[in-house]
């Protein structure tokens, strides 16, 4: 019912999805059984992507993690480009953040129904190099909204440093949305001193997204700065990757509308 009454100029329908390179994982045993697909191509790759593209339709902006820019394992298919075409998104952007020779070109990015005015690549600190955040700026009636897409480290200390780095990089942005696989539960985010100081808000109820076959943890998140209202949030029951997609409807701060 909420979806029928949302004003499209005052709301953003967002999704964040760790797609695990389009590798279907239905139980823990398939991590090993299908591990070869992280470096070797599958003749079913495009067939496997068709349900993903169908699921992604209908949002304003989708943040994607664990994609690929086109390598041996994907038969040279750029997954962001492929999904944008088949899910009917006019705009997309991909950032390659780690390369394993010709076998894999790790990437993350966005699919968007609206043009983005600026893209800023932010290298993140950490013991293992390659983590990054991408700051997209979406024009609105007054200024812009900074939308940050990231995939944080597995270690708690590195994650804390990375979150602080992101907040510092967006100090000049009044309105910020942070999206991605943050590799931590909501309690860690709520306790992070820099996030708390900036006033980042999480949905009231967790959307358990991991592992997809028996979701017990929420590690895929959408956070917003004060002024936004989180209308609804839920994990989409789409068990393809080892993560479920998380969908959030956001009402824009008072006085701000999206261009027609």
From TrEMBL:
Keywords on record: Endonuclease, Exonuclease, Hydrolase, Nuclease
Domain called Endonuclease/exonuclease/phosphatase: residue spans: 15-243
GO molecular function: endonuclease activity; exonuclease activity
InterPro entries per record: Endo/exonu/phosph_ase_sf, Endo/exonuclease/phosphatase, GPI-anchor_lipid_remodeler
Protein name: Endonuclease/exonuclease/phosphatase
GO biological process, alphabetically ordered: GPI anchor biosynthetic process
Superkingdom field: Bacteria
């Amino acid at each position: 019912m909420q979806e029928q009454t949302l004003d499209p100029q005052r709301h953003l329908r967002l999704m964040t999805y760790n797609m695990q390179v389009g590798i279907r994982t239905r139980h823990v045993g398939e991590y090993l059984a299908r591990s070869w697909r992280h470096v070797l191509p599958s003749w079913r790759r495009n067939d496997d992507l068709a349900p993903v593209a169908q699921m992604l339709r209908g949002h304003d902006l989708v943040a994607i993690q664990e994609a690929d820019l086109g390598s041996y394992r994907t038969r040279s298919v750029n997954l962001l480009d492929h999904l944008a075409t088949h899910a009917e998104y006019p705009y997309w952007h991909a950032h390659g953040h780690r390369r394993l020779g010709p076998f894999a070109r790790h990437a993350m990015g966005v699919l968007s129904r609206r043009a983005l005015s600026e893209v800023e690549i932010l290298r993140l600190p950490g013991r293992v190099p390659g983590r990054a955040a991408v700051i997209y700026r979406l024009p609105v009636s007054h200024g812009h909204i900074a939308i940050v897409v990231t995939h944080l480290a597995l270690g708690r200390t590195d994650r804390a440093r990375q979150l602080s780095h992101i907040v510092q990089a967006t100090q000049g942005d009044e309105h910020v949305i942070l999206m991605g696989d943050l590799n931590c539960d909501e309690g860690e985010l709520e306790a992070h001193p820099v996030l708390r100081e900036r006033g980042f808000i999480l949905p009231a109820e967790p959307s358990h997204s991991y592992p997809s076959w028996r979701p017990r943890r929420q590690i895929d998140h959408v956070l917003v700065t004060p002024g936004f209202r989180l209308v609804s949030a839920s994990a989409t029951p789409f068990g393809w990757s080892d993560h479920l997609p998380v969908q959030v409807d956001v009402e824009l701060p008072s006085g701000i509308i999206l261009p027609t």
